[in-house]
Automatic annotation (TrEMBL):
Top-level taxon: Bacteria
Organism: Arachnia propionica
UniProt keyword Translocase present: no
UniProt DNA-binding residue ranges: 31-50
UniProt keyword annotations, A-Z: DNA-binding, Repressor, Transcription, Transcription regulation
InterPro entries, per the entry: BetI_C, Homeodomain-like_sf, HTH-type_TetR-like_transc_reg, HTH_TetR, Tet_transcr_reg_TetR-rel_C_sf
HTH tetR-type domain span: 8-68
A family per Pfam: TetR_C_6
GO molecular function: DNA-binding transcription factor activity; transcription cis-regulatory region binding
Protein name, as recorded: TetR family transcriptional regulator C-terminal domain-containing protein
Amino acid sequence: MPKLVDHDVRRREIAQAVWAVIAERGIEGVTLRSVAAEAGVSVGRIQHYYASREELVRDSCRELLKAATQRFEAVDDDTTPVEKLRRLALGRIPTTPEFAIGTSIWLAYEAKSVDDPVIAELVQRGHAGGVQEAAALLSECGVADASAVALRLMATAEGLAIRVLVGGLEPRGATELLENLIAEVLPG
């Protein structure tokens, strides 16, 4: 009987190997061979799913966005809009070594978006999704001009995340700054 393969699971495993290569060598270190070695599979297995390096990098970016969305949506339904907003904004600040690696991988995709229009669209969609979610939550909290406030909040969170990652700010300090901004923009 032939072995059944879940292609979505296989693609996620390959994406995780791409992320590991990016974390270790940067996005320029991603090759079919380096990803195959990281995943413990043959180059042919990678080529079965991806015709080119560009396709591989782009799909791994899609998978990262999907994983981030699923992680945020895993919040309990009885969580208040304020708690969800805090989780969304503060979730940008890398507070653990593992999270810092994830943030550096995302920043590698952002850098790649400068010369890859497909990745640029994915990155823009990721940013827009975060801002839209924040705007919806801020609106639920009664914030006037929720879209502008959401953009300010999420852009600040992303900037603070970079500062933490490059060593200009401790996670605790970034968290405090962001907590203060959240308190400032919420009514009451």
